[in-house]
Amino acid sequence: MDSRHGSAEGVHLAEKVQIAAKILVVGHFAVGKTTFIGTLSEIPPLRTEETMTQAGAEIDDLKGVRGKTTTTVAMDFGRLTLSDRLVLYLFGTPGQQRFVQVWEDMTRGALGALILVDPERLRDSFAVMDLVEKYGISYAIAVNHFDGSPTHTEAELREALDLLPETPVVTCDARDEKSSAQALVALVRYLQSHTRQE
After folding, report:
1. Is residue 37 within 8 Å of 25, Cβ to Cβ?
2. What digits encode the pLDDT tens for the residues 40-81?
3. Per the UniProt record, which residue ranges are transmembrane (predicted)?
């Protein structure tokens, strides 16, 4: 076999290799994680939603939540190809405190996390942010802004969430494919720059 042909074929194959990255989509209860993954996934998303019961309604804080009838009890899963080289596997975690034990398994092998934030319930994000930081996962903040929700400046959000200067903050609508994809791209760019610095 011609060695030159073999090396050229090897380069060609290397160019076709895709990098798969595990990304967590996290946030407090009813912030839009399932919607976000469903909007972006190029495959039918795996969902583990159950109908909320009266017993659950007594545990979960529904204040500020409109039309919530189901809740994730294990995880959501979707896939998004960002480029010829990069595929993202999106794992959505349950937002309630009673499902915190699921987190340890979910965080294994995760490259980063996109934390969805409801602009009406910023305080509800603290517990989730604490968990992400506990597991040492780099993250970006995506404010899920939808009809009628209040608008905050980036400076106000950074102060309210006590963010480091380098933490990306973007606004999206989990129902909108373009803005949701831009939120993920902001996270990926941050992770890439983070990796280069290390």
Report:
1. yes
2. 999 998 866 445 445 444 444 545 555 545 544 457 899 999
3. none
Which 8-state DSSP code applies to residue 88? Answer: E
Backbone angles phi and psi of 187, in degrees to 5: -65, -50
Q: How many CB atoms lie within 10 A of CB 157?
A: 17
By CB atoms closer than 10 A (0-12, 13-18, 19+), residue 33 is buried
Among 88, 147, 93, 149, residue whose Cα is nearest residue 118: 149
How far is residue 184's CA from residue 116's CA, in Å, rounded to a whole number?
Answer: 11
Instruction: Determine the residue type at 1.
Output: M
Mean pLDDT of 171-196: 93
Cβ burial, residue 176 (10 Å; 0-12/13-18/19+): middle
Give backbone dihedrals phi and psi of 189, rounded to 5 degrees, phi first: -60, -40
User: Cα–Cα distances in Å, from 181 out to 25, 30, 59, 62?
Assistant: 12, 20, 33, 28
